[in-house]
């Protein structure tokens, strides 16, 4: 790869007429509002990727669950494996059950991403370590669809220590919080199972938020922003 290849404009994705029509039908991105946490529909997403490089690795699978009316709606679940070619796999990917055969049998990335954004609709997203998922999903959407992701993401990994300060578990991973709350989660470490574990954790955190008089997505995000700014100031 040329040293200056990153300066070149990205190629415009080639989409079929049907894909173009589906892209145009996607609803506009929402903002975080002042409705109650219970009344908000949330999409909890987890991605499996070919590695952890934000600029080189690719999204291999998407798993998502829905929180609606204060509960996980198992009838609303999403899972897609994306077809990827000529992409070396990180050994950790094999631990998630995504071997070469599964990836070779995956969906066209443009169709899979359109399916996912249709599933998301105008809902905000939740993820554990959300900045990573947000970046990787945004880049995949840009590369495959020319679509700019603007949906808000809330980071469950940051909410947990904010709302449970006595747990003394800063920088803890999802497994640590699952054990802390004695959640019964089976078949961890694939996208759908990790999304379900994150959704169960999010419900506990929403209950803690309401007890602290934070009962809207906007209020919760504002408190999280304040808490993170204070952390940054104290780190200097």
CATH topology: Nucleotidyltransferase, domain 5
Structural class: alpha/beta
Strand order of the largest sheet: 3-2-1-4-5
Work out the radius of gyration.
Answer: 18 Å
- The number of helical runs is 9
Q: What is the tally of beta strands?
A: 5
pLDDT below 50 for ≥5 consecutive residues: which ranges?
Answer: none
The SSE order reads HEEEHHHEHEHHHH
Q: Portion of residues in helices?
A: 40-55%
Assigned CATH architecture: 2-Layer Sandwich
Domain Exonuclease: 41-211
Organism: Pseudomonas lundensis
InterPro entries: Ribonucl_H (IPR013520), RNaseH-like_sf (IPR012337), RNaseH_sf (IPR036397)
Protein name: 3'-5' exonuclease
Would you write up a description of this structure?
The protein is an alpha/beta fold. The protein has a single domain (38-235), classed as Ribonuclease H-like superfamily/Ribonuclease H (Nucleotidyltransferase, domain 5), CATH 3.30.420. Helix content is 43%, strand content 15%. It is built from nine helices and five strands; from the N terminus they run αβββαααβαβαααα. It has helices at 17-24, 91-95, 100-104, 109-120, 130-145, 156-163, 174-180, 191-211, 217-235, and strands spanning 42-49, 59-68, 71-81, 125-127, 153-155. A five-stranded mixed beta sheet has the order 3-2-1-4-5, with helices on both faces. Strand 2 and strand 3 form a beta hairpin. Helix 4 (109-120) crosses helix 5 and helix 6 runs parallel beside helix 8 (191-211). It comes from Pseudomonas lundensis. Pfam families: RNase_T.
